[in-house]
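ok so I'm stuck.
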Amino acid sequence: MEESISPDLTEKGLLALAESPLDPQRLVAGGGQGEVFTTSDGGKTWKGAGAGLPGKTVRDIVLSVHRPDRVFVVLSGSNDSDSTSWIFRSDDFGNSWNSISANLPPESANALAEDSKTPGLLFVGTDLGVYVSTNNAGGWESLCQTLPTAPVVDLEVQDRDGALVAATHGLGIFLLDIEPIRKSVRK
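replied:
not stuck anymore, here's the structure
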């Protein structure tokens, strides 16, 4: 039996939905124009959480595996010829947002992945490839020496094998062993 868990949150439709790995009652949904909505009760009640975000298209939402109130949102301005990397983090479940784009190149960001084994280790997929931050988004470094410089449309950390899975537009899917990166962060 199908059951609706929300009213129509946005006229243009939702583009991203994420469930917290720490609390299945916490969901975050996003659409165009920087629209973000949160629920802490499995969808019974929703509230707008996009205040402070630019009016760009939500491409990805990630709820932290380390902190229940942390949410990451990746937005894209490619529909209006804006190639800025728009990546934001909220540490209060969407009540406020801070940019974590730091030194990323001026290219659209498409996806984000947080490593579950190493707090502060983040990966972002952009139109120029994959970037890594080992200091909780204090700065980003390119991983294009080991991965192609191609639009990365989705990322996932595969814990069992310690690999980053990167899906590209046009070049297929790549795996990167991230154990050496994890070890460098833990030192």
